[in-house]
Specification:
Elements lengths: L3 H28 L2 H18 L2 H15 L10 H24 L5 H7 E5 L1 H10 L3 E5 L5 H10 L4 E5 L5 H13 L2 E5 L4 H10 L3 E5 L9 E5 L2 E5 L2 H9 L2 E9 L5 E5 L11 H22 L17
Parallel strand pairs: 1-9, 2-5, 2-8, 3-4, 3-5
Antiparallel strand pairs: 6-7, 8-9
Helix pairs in contact: 1-4, 2-4, 3-4, 10-11
Length: 312
């Protein structure tokens, strides 16, 4: 039998190797000429898409829901079309990783030269002027970190909840990279709510990616024609603090740009019991996400189960 303590050095070596690999790849992508870095990322992604596997199969389920929502009732989208669109998400995801790796090395001028808000910038500034903070809710679309970096340059820093990475050394490096861009990243879990409340109290921005219920205790909504749950955090924060709740999406493109769209603030007035108001506002958020995802379904980077009917 193998003593458990004999496994610890091997486990530690693997964790260290993973950290060094990710950090080395990020540094390499950040310093390579942009066309070459993006070409490498896209090449790897296309190989993965052609190989298929569980990630592609799951994304095809999600893509079928999106495309079906634009069909006549009772009409299913062409499976070939679903697969084609789903494979494009790998290409988009490659750009997300490539641009994300390059972002910490971009100058202020470089960020400003490649980010624009197509519509709704005034919604952010009006909310900041109210002095009660801003809750931004986003889907897994495009490259939201570019929006966070731009907000920091504009004197509107964001605190965002992110999934914890393993090993811890990798996560701490990730957090440090974001901090250098003016973006405070806090791990999902105990303490994340306190960090968001502190940001709102300071009249800053609290950012939550809100199209996937990671914890499993979300609010039931109808999302692309099927019942599921989405996290209640954005709605609950806005209702309890009086902060404006802005649905936001940051698309990759056109060209090498990143384009933000900021929707008008959702109605977070109290209309009933807190539980009911949270459910109402979260459903409004889900409906807005549907609109944003339909606009560029190939940029919706979701490869995990998201509905009860999805296989685990």
């Amino acid at each position: 039998m193998t003593d458990d303590h004999e496994l610890e050095p091997a486990h530690g070596w693997r964790a260290r190797s993973k950290y060094l690999t990710y950090r080395g790849l990020a540094a390499g992508m950040g310093h390579l000429p942009e066309p070459l870095a993006e070409g490498i990322a896209r090449g790897v992604a296309r190989v993965m898409a052609l190989r298929g596997g569980p990630a592609l199969a799951m994304n095809e389920r999600h893509m079928a829901r999106v495309l079906a929502s634009e069909c006549a009732p009772g009409v299913a989208p062409d499976p070939v079309l679903v697969q084609r669109w789903s494979r494009r998400t790998f290409d988009s995801y490659a750009r997300y990783w490539s641009d994300g790796a390059r972002l910490p090395y971009e100058s202020e001028a470089g960020v400003r030269a490649r980010f624009q808000i197509l519509e709704g910038e005034q919604h952010i500034r009006d909310a900041v002027d109210r002095g009660r903070g801003v809750v931004m809710a986003l889907p897994h679309v495009g490259s939201w970190e570019w929006g966070g970096a731009w907000l920091g340059l504009e004197g509107m820093p964001m605190t965002a909840v992110v999934e914890r990475l393993e090993p811890e050394e990798l996560f701490e490096w990730f957090v440090g990279q974001r901090a250098a861009m003016g973006l405070t990243a806090v791990p999902l879990g105990d303490g994340s709510s306190s960090a968001l409340l502190r940001a709102l109290k300071a009249n800053e921005i609290a950012g939550l990616v809100s199209d996937r219920d990671l914890v499993g205790n979300g609010v039931e909504v109808e999302f692309f024609g099927e019942k599921t749950t989405l996290p209640a955090g954005a709605a609950a924060l806005a209702l309890r603090t009086g902060a404006a709740l802005l649905p936001v999406v940051v698309y990759s493109g056109p060209g090498n740009w990143h384009t933000g769209v900021v929707h008008p603030p959702l109605d977070t007035s109290r209309q009933g019991r807190m539980r009911e108001d949270i459910a109402r506002v979260t459903q409004d958020l889900a409906t807005t996400f549907e609109h944003d995802i339909r606009a560029h379904p190939e940029q919706w980077h979701l490869y995990q189960p998201n509905w009860p009917s999805d296989p685990r």
